[in-house]
Write a structure and sequence with these properties.
This protein is of the alpha+beta class. The protein contains six helices and seven strands; from the N terminus they run αααββααβββββα. The chain has a five-stranded antiparallel sheet with strand order 6-5-4-3-7, with no helix packed on it. Strands 1-2 form a two-stranded antiparallel ribbon. Helix 3 (70-79) packs across helix 6 (189-200) and helix 5 (108-116) crosses helix 6. The longest helix has 14 residues, at 45-58. The radius of gyration is 20 Å and the shape is flat.
């Protein structure tokens, strides 16, 4: 709600990836960014002008200072096992979201909140599921796709399972659950500051 990022990018930065001025922002809103951002065909020209100026103004808001040390934050990131679930700069595993560009999509406040309480910022499409197969094997993982007949799951090792639902002993949808632990309970305040700083500085080069 404050433009700090989440499902969409962090808008509270001086230079946005797809636009650098109100006119460019208006074009992005009008035409969208396939496949994730739909076009804003329903906005009038006046609405587009006002909305683009407002979005541009978000980038003029002074950023919250990064109070940690990025080098120490990298150590915290690696020692906390984050690469076991996430990719960053070509390293790690793709079970969780790729963090290579996380600093452009999430502001420091949003990053901190997610680290402290991961359940508070789950994407709408995210769903952790647990199934028991006909052979008695229990598989817990992230739902990647589901239709009437089948469900596709990625487990923590990165393996993908395509399963026929009618052949399962059970299928539990663990809504609101996440495999990510609450790091606010695991890290000191300084370690959390360092980790937030490290992640906030992760941006792809143009």
């Amino acid at each position: 709600m404050n433009g700090g990022g989440g499902r969409g990018p962090n808008l509270r930065q001086a230079e946005l990836w797809h636009a650098s001025n109100p006119a460019g922002i208006a074009a992005v809103i009008k035409y969208g960014i396939p496949p994730d951002m739909p076009d804003g065909w329903y906005f009038s020209d006046v609405d587009l002008a006002n909305l683009s100026v407002y979005v541009f103004s978000l980038g003029q808001i002074p950023q919250a200072p990064l109070t940690g040390d990025a080098a120490r934050g990298q150590v915290v990131f690696e020692q906390s096992g984050c690469l076991g679930c996430h990719m960053l700069g070509g390293r790690g595993h793709g079970y969780g979201p790729d963090l290579t560009n996380i600093g452009a999509t999430r502001g420091a406040e949003s990053l901190r909140q997610t680290l402290i309480d991961p359940k508070s910022s789950l994407p709408p499409e995210f769903l952790l599921v647990e199934v028991v197969t006909a052979a008695g094997q229990t598989i817990q993982g992230i739902r990647r796709n589901e239709d009437t007949m089948t469900i596709q799951i990625q487990d923590p090792t990165g393996a993908h399972h395509s399963l026929v639902k009618s052949r399962l002993r059970s299928l539990k949808r663990l809504r609101g659950a996440t495999p990510m632990p609450p790091f606010g309970e695991m890290l000191s305040k300084q370690q959390l500051d360092d980790l937030v700083t490290y992640l906030a500085l992760q941006r792809r080069r143009r």
